[in-house]
Design brief:
elongated; 919 residues; Immunoglobulin-like; mainly beta; 58 strands; Phage tail protein beta-alpha-beta fold; 22-stranded antiparallel barrel; five-stranded mixed sheet; Maltoporin, Chain A; 10 helices; single chain
């Protein structure tokens, strides 16, 4: 007890001793300068007064006082001058209009971000924190000082949304001290290689506020950064948030469209359509309205691969191309590879469309959807485990029969059509591993009176596991399954009515490992294995009056195994090289019976002499091929780059179609004993520049493609009547070439782009004999040869709530083969046709408008809604989809067939339940 009392007395004494004595003086001065007055204070008390002489040059001191403190004396002299006095360690500081902060704010242990404040926090304390946030709240210590490693540290980061916890794709980090940076991948992961030390890191992404952090690098390690959504017009924040959105910075051969643009651009029937938006980019066209296929740089529609969360999709449209197969509300990222294609992808000659959905809200429940006169959609997302696991469910359905029932045409009035699709995603973010479980299902049906009916469907599943082995190595594993199936019934002629079903199964396993050696060098390598299983079905008679004989088309199986490696290396600060190599081995597998013909140059069912039988899984034919890919990105100056690329691709399956447009009952066919895989070499060169401080971007790019073993179909080919496809198909050469012009304006109130493409696509099939030639062995335009294509988009942001958009489209009419004359032999008429695709249908021109009106933008409001009004084909042009002929009164008359021949007005109501920025 005595020791305790002595200790308390000692502490009390120390405290009293440490207290600063109050300095008191007597002061009697008249008309004295301020400098003389402060010298008087120093002589009497020993305290110094700090100030700038220009602040007090006009002050005269008159003071008569006894027993006054120094602080009181200074305040009395300064009076209303606006100067404030603060005491500091026994001395005094004079500042204009403010006093020194002499205490730290009282903080609790609650975690806060740099831009937030504590509940009830005083304004002064809030300002104090704000001025010191970079030093206190945003320093990220990475690694351990006891790690004892080399000076270069490998760092992995995760970028996510602070509101919903969803990982952010395309976010960028810029290190100010080294003038280097990186971008996050589809899983929100970002990699850096830095020397040990302290750095200033600036994080940016489209639609998010910029965030600056201090990185304290001690050794290899990881960090997490959460970004806050920006409540400003998106274009002010998005243009350069993603490197692939900048013409000069993006990788060669990439096209990318922001999700915001997809939602603003007017579309037919009011549905947001990423496929139709892609047609507005340079080098990508469609053969017409109501067509589901895309043609990229002169390629056929079967030369494009579509992936959504690693699931391949073999029919990307609903309702014959009028609706997209993907719900735009759930799309997070959308990249088109049409020049240099990374070695991870293979199997297509022209392009790869890589679509990534959002992961769902990991913090709050959210619901949003929309409805228009033809369809409706809804999306639900909710956290399963806060901040780490979420579930997203989206569904769409059509209700368009009420429109068909009001048509004048009897057949259309008695028809029905509809579709639905369902998408779900379970996403879990563990400490070093991301796991995504994805499901996709779509179904379409169409019935034309009592004449024809179709149904087709997509079914897909994928499991993706992305694991960080260490700070510089990560492993991406995915397992995907896809099924495309259709069924058709044709009763147009009762005596030949038939039914037919078809199914294609695609099973794919891909694993790639990415090594980040430094910020200049990244190496990715792995394997890709695909198993194709085709059930081509049997064409069977339908109904008791049908006289058609059954035609079995059999089944097919193929295995594609590939090894790939991609290397990205910054040789110099102004040049980056992309190198890729892919070795694939495709094998056609049994069981199968292969026809043997009397001559290898004359394949006709009349000359079959024998068959070769192959057992189950026995290799029928193998096609091993190497693919080399290389690209250069050369920085010419701060505002411009030159990009060159060479790309080799092989394609092992193609579509059996002799029509211009993609139909629901178009079959996919594998390469086999007779039909070789197609092989493409593509060269491209482009110049890209930014103008007026990045307010205007422009590019010009030229390309040349050559394809060997290109499948083309004999005149009059019919794939339903003959299961021997090799008798209906010839293989030749295709050449495509052209140039693309692109300009994009990035304004605060007005933005948009203009894209012009001039290109040619020519085919030549010149076999050894006349029966192996098409068009007498002369080159002819392909069905999708569109020399001129011009598209413009203008978006006007009148306010945060009101946006108007317009689209203008023009393209040269597609080629067509016309009948030239009719002659008679034994009273039987025969039509003489022109050379293949010698003529063209009329040119295509269309203007669309849309108006988007947002409701209240209050963040805490529970229910939000918006309206989108659109006018498709504003001028009501009857653009020709095709030209057909009818024999009338002994003459052959031509007619144009138009899909949309009038203005089409739509209105869509969109709703959101939850925070306005939940998606």
């Amino acid at each position: 007890m005595k020791r305790l009392i002595i200790l308390l007395l000692l502490l009390t004494g120390l405290q009293l001793y440490s207290q600063e004595p109050v300095r008191i003086l007597s002061c009697h001065v008249a008309n004295q300068s301020f400098a003389g007055f402060t010298e008087l204070i120093r002589n009497k008390t020993g305290s110094r007064v700090f100030y700038k002489s220009e602040w007090v040059s006009n002050i005269k001191v008159n003071l008569n006082a006894d027993s006054i403190t120094v602080l009181e004396a200074l305040n009395a002299v300064l009076g209303t001058t606006g100067l404030k006095t603060s005491e500091w360690n026994g001395n005094y500081i004079i500042l204009p209009d403010e006093e020194l902060s002499t205490r730290l704010p009282e903080l609790t242990s609650t975690a806060i971000s740099a831009d937030s404040t504590l509940p009830g926090q005083p304004v002064g304390d809030r300002d104090f924190l704000k001025g010191r946030s970079a030093d206190i709240l945003k320093t990220l210590t990475i690694g351990s000082k006891h790690a004892g490693q080399a000076r270069i540290a490998k760092i992995n980061g995760t970028i996510s949304d602070i509101e919903n916890g969803e990982l952010i794709n395309g976010a960028t980090v810029f290190i100010e001290e080294t003038n280097t940076g990186a971008a996050s991948d589809r899983n929100g992961n970002i990699s850096l290689s830095l020397k040990q030390g302290r750095y200033t890191a600036r994080f940016e992404c489209m639609g998010y506020n910029k965030t600056t952090c201090q990185l304290d690098i001690l050794s290899d390690g990881s960090f997490d950064v959460r970004l806050v959504r920006a409540l400003i017009p998106l274009k002010e924040a998005v243009i350069y948030g993603d490197r692939q959105m900048n013409l000069t910075q993006k990788d060669p051969g990439i096209e990318k469209v922001s999700v915001r643009s997809i939602k603003e651009i007017p579309m037919m029937l009011g549905e947001r359509d990423i496929i139709k938006v892609s047609q507005l980019l340079p080098g990508i066209v469609s053969v017409g309205e109501g067509s589901a296929g895309l043609n990229v740089r002169g390629g056929n529609f079967d030369q494009n691969a579509f992936y959504i969360n690693r699931v391949p999709v073999y029919n990307t449209s609903h309702f014959f191309g009028f609706y997209p197969a993907f719900n735009a509300d759930i799309i997070n990222d959308f990249i088109i590879y049409k020049g240099y294609i990374p070695a991870q992808f293979g199997g297509r000659l022209s392009s790869v469309f890589d679509i990534v959905t959002r992961q769902g809200n990991k913090k709050h429940f959210a619901l949003h959807g929309g409805i228009n006169p033809f369809s409706g959609n809804i999306t639900i997302e909710t956290p399963v485990i806060n901040d780490s696991c979420s579930f997203l469910l989206s569904g769409r359905s059509s209700f368009s029969d009420w429109v068909l029932s009001r048509m004048d045409d009897y057949n259309i009035r008695n028809s029905s059509a509809g579709f639905y699709d369902i998408t779900s995603l379970l996403s879990c973010d563990l400490k070093k591993t991301n796991i995504d479980l994805f499901f996709y299902r779509s179904y379409d049906h169409f019935k034309l009176a009592e004449l024809t009916s179709y149904n087709y469907s997509n079914l897909g599943f994928s499991l993706s596991i992305n694991h960080h082995i260490n700070a510089s190595v990560k492993n991406n594993f995915s397992l995907a399954m896809s099924r495309y199936a259709y069924g058709t019934i044709d009763k147009q002629e009762i005596s030949s009515a038939y039914q037919h079903s078809y199914q294609l199964d695609h099973y794919e396993l891909r694993n790639d490992i990415s090594h980040s050696f430094s910020e200049k060098h990244t190496l990715t390598y792995g394997i890709d294995m695909i198993l194709y299983m085709l059930d081509r079905g049997t064409v069977e008679p339908f109904g008791p009056e049908s006289e058609r004989l059954p035609v079995p088309h059999g089944s097919e199986k193929g295995l594609e195994a590939a090894l790939f490696i991609t290397d990205i290396y910054n040789i110099l600060p102004w040049i980056r090289i992309y190198g890729g190599f892919r070795f694939s081995d495709y094998s056609s597998l049994g069981p199968e019976k292969v026809n043997v013909y009397a001559s290898p140059f004359l394949r006709d069912i009349r000359y079959i002499t024998d068959t070769i039988s192959f057992r189950s899984n026995e290799i029928i034919k193998s096609y091993p091929v190497p693919e080399f890919r290389i690209a250069l990105n050369i920085k010419t100056d701060a505002a411009g780059t030159v990009k060159l690329s060479f790309n080799q691709m092989d394609q092992n399956l193609f579509m059996l179609s002799n029509t211009v447009a993609l139909a629901p009952n178009t079959q996919w066919k594998l390469s086999d004993y007779y039909l070789r895989p197609s092989r493409c070499n593509q060269y491209s060169l482009g110049i890209f520049r930014n103008f007026f401080s990045n307010k205007l971007e422009g590019s010009v790019e030229v390309f040349y493609k050559s394809v060997n073993h290109f499948p083309e179909f004999r005149d009059g080919a019919n794939f339903l009547f003959s299961p021997a496809v090799e008798t209906e198909v010839l293989q030749g050469q295709q050449k495509s070439y052209g140039f693309e012009l692109f300009a994009r304006m990035n304004g605060k109130k007005t933005d948009g782009w203009i894209a012009y493409t001039w290109s040619r696509s020519l085919i030549r099939v010149n076999g050894t004999d006349y029966w192996n030639k098409i068009n007498n062995g002369l080159a002819y335009p392909s069905n999708y040869d569109i020399p001129n294509a011009l598209n413009t988009i203008v978006n006007c942001h009148f306010s945060k709530r009101v946006t108007a958009s317009s689209v203008l489209c023009y393209q040269t009419g597609k080629p067509v083969t016309y009948p030239l004359s009719v002659y008679y032999i034994n009273d039987q008429p025969y039509t003489d046709f022109s050379s293949r695709n010698k003529y063209r249908i009329p040119d295509y021109f269309r203007i669309d408008l849309s108006l988007n009106i947002e409701g209240s933008l209050k963040m805490k409001k529970l229910f939000h809604s918006s309206w989108q009004f659109g006018i498709y084909n504003l001028m009501g042009r009857r653009n020709a989809f095709s030209v057909y002929y009818k024999s009338e009164d002994g003459q052959l008359n031509s007619y144009k067939y138009s899909i949309i021949g009038a203005q089409l007005l739509t209105a869509s109501w969109l709703i959101k339940i939850g925070n306005f920025e939940t998606y």
